[in-house]
Amino acid sequence: xxxxxRAYSTVQPGLRPGITKGFIGAIGNTPLLRLKSLSEETGSxxxxxxxxxxxxxxxxxxxxxxxVKDAEEKGLIKTGGTVxxxxxxxxxxxxxxxxRAKGYKCVIYMPNTQSQEKIDLLRMLGAEVxxxxxxAFDNPENYNHQARRHAESLNNAVWTNQFDNTANRRAHIxxxxxxxxxxTEGRLDGFTCATGTGGTFAGTARYLKSQxxxxxxxxxxxxxxxxxxxxxxxxKSFDRAGGSITEGIGQGRIxxxxxxxxxxxxxxxxxxxxxxxxxxxxxLDEEGIYVGASSAxxxxxxxxxxxxxxxxxxxxxxxxxxxxxxxxxxxxxxxLESKKLDGAIPEHLQKYIVLP
Length: 356
Known about the structure:
α4 packs across α5, α4 (60-73) packs across α8 and α8 packs across α9 (199-211). Helix content is 39%, strand content 14%. Strands 1-2-10-7-8-9 form a six-stranded mixed sheet, sandwiched between helices. By secondary structure, the protein is α/β, with parallel strands linked by helices. The chain contains 14 helices and ten strands. The radius of gyration is 20 Å and the shape is globular. The chain has helices at 3-7, 22-25, 36-42, 60-73, 90-102, 116-124, 143-152, 167-183, 199-211, 227-232, 273-287, 293-309, 327-330, 333-338; strands at 32-34, 45-50, 82-86, 105-111, 128-132, 157-159, 190-194, 216-221, 267-270, 314-319.
């Protein structure tokens, strides 16, 4: 055996020997990346959990697995059954993968404002997809309510209800939070991420604060969401001005996943789309990381929180998914111009706008 082969035939540090049990066994245990340029800029460690490295490509693989496991444990679904969900995309993609791995049918209702890449991928994974008009949650035609009614019309079917099914939050209490704690060796000063269902933020923040109550937990919010207003007003305001290009984040209410942990939120930042798109291009150029707008928003807030806490701190956030699911928009000059965002991208980064 050559010296080269011997050097690479041993298990690398941090990896355990053994064979992963299929798609489901590969969910979680994602790397925690130190973002070099932003860490140097802030004088603190900006740490990003690479959730785009989950097998289904997003943080929502974790929630998808846990809500299906929860349905199985409660006897709500049996072999050959159907899983129905209302989702802006990533939870649906995670569910489609999990359902294929477990032998269930998958039906997805989603707002018709979502990227075509997501819709196409869901169908490629064998899911039945229903894009429906995007309307508020209090409208009976909201995609979540349509998903619930569809599940109720079938035998051996479950609506997994990701927004208010706290198995979603439990996924992050049991996996994401402990992983970040172990990866930082218990040295962490802040955690932030955006919320859609609230599961990722609430579950991760709850676990981390259970280990160290001094860790600051901040919500990252896009325009058009009520959460920044709600936190800043001490729960008195639900203002939701504007809108955002980000998909799957922001909220018009306090979900059941979020409700138990509102009390542990230390603050929030609302990030304009201009800052998110600039950071998205910076991460590509400076770090070689290709992520979507919600991930970029999370990193913007991580840097803001680091600056607020002062130098020498450690702040962790979530890289929720890759840019592959949005590239026809985020790297299209005509689309960026239609959103008046092309001017937010610095001249030296304009070279990445490669689509017409």
